[in-house]
């Protein structure tokens, strides 16, 4: 009945399904374990009529015009520039840290000195990694990097990761991504293309997947329909040999019945609160790197531009992911990457399996990276 089976109806799976159905004119079955399409991008109107992102804020941003133009086939855009603040030592500062952040954190004379040194050494507009500052010969810049590392990046990363075996590895991971932007630009993302689908992400996914050649199964565990024989490398669908391609976007260790053990993932608990006032906080998203258990709070109306007398916020709390939950992101410690390599070698033995997406590749991809990856996979398929 089907030429292709796609497991997962998030961006990774939806892009592949749409391309195969419309460009190759082949029959595609999409299997999704949740009761909705869109993966973690799913949005809906809550009881008060406010459009909310069920799994936390999703701001689409990219430098890739091909990806932007591809999605534009399925939705118009509301152009949007995201702004994020963080509570640091009692101050609300722009994140990523920039020259405005320094003004909020340090005395004016110290801020002038730091600003002058940063501009003179690295140039206005540069993104300087904290590791580079820590390796500099200027003691004041080293102290700045150390302050930002310990008050912003390391603690926030520790909240995201939870308990880890190697604290040094956590610090290294945090610093590898930490930077200061030598600029007064307070936008969270500098990318050329930024926006929110005008009618929501769910509508965008509906436009992608409501194709004559696509059959969609929701609330379905793919393991009830698909089995892999690790000896013969044969794929069976409903007990019969399946000779088409299996495009898989779920957990790579689950696909192979955790043969080598379980990879570690983190999950996020989302708590919604609606208030009978128009505005709750002073920025779309506010991070809490140090105080409180929560990671961040996002106020949805900033993102959607919706006019409403009430407002809804989403609090996020990081937690360990159990085997039976849908993970939010991988936990890329060195021992996990070694385990991943074993699963990747096993996957390579199945010529009919295509892996794509954050969980199948065990990578913390942004939305545009997931789409670009699936477009590349489709091009290779063709």
Provide a short characterization of the protein structure:
The chain has twelve helices and 22 strands.
What does this structure look like?
The chain is 34% helix and 24% strand. By secondary structure, it is of the alpha+beta class. It has a seven-stranded mixed beta sheet. Strand 7 and strand 8 (91-95) form a beta hairpin. The longest helix has 23 residues, at 139-161. The two termini are 20 Å apart.
How are the elements arranged and paired?
Blueprint: E1 4-7, H1 11-23, E2 28-31, E3 43-45, E4 51-53, E5 60-62, H2 65-71, E6 77-79, E7 84-88, E8 91-95, H3 99-105, H4 108-122, E9 127-129, H5 130-134, H6 139-161, H7 167-177, E10 179-181, E11 193-197, H8 201-209, E12 214-217, E13 226-229, E14 234-237, E15 240-241, E16 245-248, H9 252-255, E17 265-275, E18 285-287, E19 296-299, H10 300-304, E20 311-320, E21 329-330, H11 334-348, E22 353-355, H12 367-381
Parallel strand pairs: 1-2, 1-16, 2-12, 7-18, 16-22
Antiparallel strand pairs: 3-4, 5-11, 6-11, 7-8, 9-10, 13-14, 14-15, 17-20, 17-21, 18-19, 19-20
Helix pairs in contact: 1-12, 3-4, 6-7
Taking pLDDT < 50 over at least 5 consecutive residues as the criterion, the unreliable ranges are: none
Tally of helical runs:
12
Ends apart, CA distance between termini: 20 Å
Q: Main sheet: which strands, in order across? A: 8-7-18-19-20-17-21
Q: Could you estimate the helical fraction of the residues in percent?
A: 25-40%
Q: Judging from the principal axes of the Cα atoms, what is the shape?
A: globular
